[in-house]
Amino acid sequence: MASSVKQRGAAPAPSAPPERGGIAARWAAMPLLARHLLGALAAFAAVVALTSMTDSLTDLRIASIGYYTLAVAGLGLLVGFSGQISLGHGAFMFIGAYTTALLVTNVPMVPLWLNLVITVVASCVAGVLVGAASARLHGPYLAGATLTLAVGLPAVALRFPEVLGGSNGLSFSTRGAPPALAGVIPDTRWQAWAVWLAVLLALVALATISKGRLGRQMRAIRDDESAAALAGIKVGRTKVVAFVISAGCGGLAGGLQAYLLGTATPSSFSVVLSLSLLAALILGGMGSLWGALWGALALVYFEVWGETLADALELESKVSNNLPIVLYGVILIAVVLAWPQGIQGALSRLRRRWQRR
């Protein structure tokens, strides 16, 4: 008896389990919004570092990648999460660009951040109207309704030329770097920073929504509307909310484009833009913010590469003007055939294989 007690007493105390995961475990334990904000901060630091080594033209291209990423990400929330096909996302960019242009032209004392907030609100109101009107439409009927919006809305600028400038659009001057930084930071670099700051804040909101309860409800509706309704999800309201969020992202992207270029013209928001955004979403991969980035890179740089190739081959103007579109289409077909889930889907598959090995 005593020996057994002694043995039990002599047994060493169990040591604490070793810490598992390290940084990865602490990162996973952080609140979702905090993780997204830290990721956005790191991305903004990367943009600042990158633009500090580039020229003005490259700064403009980097800023263009930013607002295209936001537009494609908003469309991805609508199509990839709620399952609503939209061929008219360029119309929301039109609303955002002209709202920004009208505010800068008529109320120049409004600061940029308030201008963009008003632009988002105006785009969300348009999203409520479009979403409520198309909540009961599905498949090709919804696609046709949104395509009509993309075709018809730019014609409003031609119908009211005294307000919207007609075919020439609205031109205005935007503020560059603050006076204290004038001459130190080029205006194009400052504009690229402003664009990416707004884009990253919007992407933080999108990422938080997609990972939260609303994102799960959207995916349930996308998979099976009847089952989602039986589970207590309000299908119609959730669809409208998806349209509103997507419209707000598109409007903000259009407003940032107008701020960057200093102009808003109806020809910039034709149906070709809407189809290009959808193609970029498919190319990059639906359901991922990284996929939106790859699609935006393709939108900006395929055109640049096409023009460079046309100049190198000394092609005629008719051929050189259409070469970027042909190049974009060929690569899109190749990616869809090789990787049906887009570029980000292929990268995710490679990462999973590497982890298994």
From TrEMBL:
Pfam families: BPD_transp_2. It comes from the Bacteria. InterPro entries: ABC_transp_permease (IPR001851), LivM-like (IPR043428). It is found in: Cell membrane. Keywords: Cell membrane, Membrane, Transmembrane, Transmembrane helix. It is a multi-pass membrane protein. Residues 1-20 are annotated as: Disordered. This is Branched-chain amino acid ABC transporter permease. It comes from Salinactinospora qingdaonensis.
